[in-house]
Amino acid sequence: MAPEAIVAELRRLEIETPSWGYGNSGTRFHVFPWPSAARTPEERIADAALVHRLTAACPTVAIHIPWDRVDDWDAFRAYAEQEGVRIGAVNPNLFQDDRYRLGSLAHPDEAVRRLALDHCLECVEIAKRVGSTIVSLWVPDGTNYPGQDDLRGRFRRLAAALEELYEALPDGMRLLVEYKFFEPSFYSTDLPDWGTAALLCRRLGPKAQVLVDTGHHPQGTNIEQIVALLLEGGLLGGFHFNSRKYADDDLIVGAIDPFELFRIMVEIAAARRDSATSETAEAIAFMIDQSHNVEGKIDAMIQSVVNIQTAYAKALLVDRPKLDRLHAAGDVLGAHRVLLDAYETDVRPILLQLRSELGVPADPFEAYRAEHADRLVRERAG
Ligand code: LRH
Ligand code: MN
Question: Which residues have C-beta within 8 Å of that of residue 320, sequence separation ≥ 6?
Fold first, then answer.
């Protein structure tokens, strides 16, 4: 693809940032406060809007309930739009209530399942109020010991709850189902992998699709193959981009394994060129889900956006016709080297062209540090 065509494709790449990525966050060991970290839903929106002003690539911000609960959703929506962003995916929270000890939607007790489902249904109502078209659901449920509960019984309870939630979705709204192979449960997880998520989404209907969080797989998992299969099945709804070395580390996307991120974006670029999968591939929600424990929040988010744009630009450079020819010829290394050629190409000139066309700083990371970092520390002191 020619550089100007790649710039045109990059202009269409919208990346949603997570409100929770702008606040102080940490591990169970400690939360290190960052002087300019956002403290309120409004400050988190303002920081997301600043990232959008500096990159022109992040027009929406995901919210998490109750972390971002406000009294007046109309005013909150208006504030976001006045700041230049829209509210994106609404994320229910099924992991921070004492009553969820044995689970939420899969809990043995009907009353607790009702409580959890009512929270998810409230998130559908919030999505309607703020103009969001996505409810992004991670179900943390599971067990810690063999025999603790009936694994098929838990699945049936989860499926029944999701059916009721699905019925509440208005047209035009999607339910993204996020899987994770372990944590906070350490023996079984009721929604552990893409297969279980796909099974549930097929049962629910076309408004339900699978969300791939890149930190939610066992070591060694071929995530780009999962992405390819979900695209082939019309089931890939979105991503929670981050990276990890060990477990669900939620580090900056592309920081640990940029070649993996490139391979994922290669599958997306290919699917967008294929009429059999382009509709699904065009509707993918590219969302970031990270926790910035020892670094600045806004500059970390900007670096994440740059890493995703870089990986996608390299993916768009893959010489498809040559690759198809070498696939047909069975030229193993010839085909492999077509990907290497693209991956090893410096796309920074293309990204500079993109930013000049979009009227944003040539280096948004440095622009943030030079023009905003100290101001925010002063404004948020005390
Ligand atoms: C779970 C998860 C989920 C969010 C949470 C912040 O690990 O990825 O997407 O709700 O992180
Ligand atoms: Mn996630």
Answer: 270, 273
